[in-house]
Amino acid sequence: MSDARVPAAEAVESHVRAYFAGHAVEAVGLGPDFNPGLGSGFGSGAERREVAPGARVLVVGPGPRGDGWAYVTAGCWAATDPTEKGGHGLEFVMTAHVRDQRFVELMAMIAAYHRGHRLGLEHSMPIGEPWVPGSACDHLLISLPYLHGPDLEHCPVPGGHARILWTLPVTTAEIEFRRRHGHEALERLFDEAEIIPTDPFRASVV
Asked: Is 28 left (phi over 0), alpha (psi -120 to 50) or beta?
């Protein structure tokens, strides 16, 4: 993998800052000194260094585009070798109701999980515990970033293109329904129930 990884992370950060113009944006580095505090998923310091040089989580505060918070990875694009897919790689966004280190930690966990498992659209990953204490959501579903649209989703980077996908917290029952009936059927249930995706205490739709 080339040393384009750091410029790619910087390009993603510039893209996110431009999309969220008027919002406060904080960059939290995911170097070897980052300690997510989660019991599983992120791994040792050596593994953290290999997620990608320059990897970070961008914490976006409320502003013109919405009153919630967004957490966006910058550096996952190079966590797996994007040259294998013609220079195309992924980044991830999560939306939440507050600013909390918990969500930064989850994005770090996603970065590490993606490095080992190569997440993609309509994939899911277990959190291993509730999204937040008391939440029924204990998985993350990789979906299109419906709250933000294609202007955030599609991000050019040096040597390729990053696609920013949504990590939606979901319940075990919803994951089991998706396995039986498909991703689109689950999304229809979300639409019918008019879920508030930033509500950690929402009821399961199945």
From this structure: beta
Q: How, if at all, do strands 88-96 and 160-171 pair?
A: parallel
* Residue pair 198/99 in contact by the 8 Å Cβ criterion: no
Tokens of 1: 């993998």
**How far apart are the C-alpha atoms of 138 and 62, rounded to whole Å?**
25
pTM: 0.89
For each of the chain's 206 residues, which pLDDT tens digit applies? 445 678 889 999 999 999 999 999 999 998 766 655 544 443 434 344 446 678 899 999 999 999 999 999 998 886 666 566 667 899 999 999 999 999 999 999 998 889 888 899 999 999 999 999 999 999 999 999 999 999 999 999 988 899 999 999 999 999 999 999 999 999 999 999 999 999 999 999 99
Query: Residue 46: beta bridge partners?
Result: none
Largest pairwise CA distance in the chain: 46
d(C-alpha 53, C-alpha 8), whole Å: 10
| Spatial distance between the Cα atoms of 92 and 191, rounded to a whole number of angstroms | 22
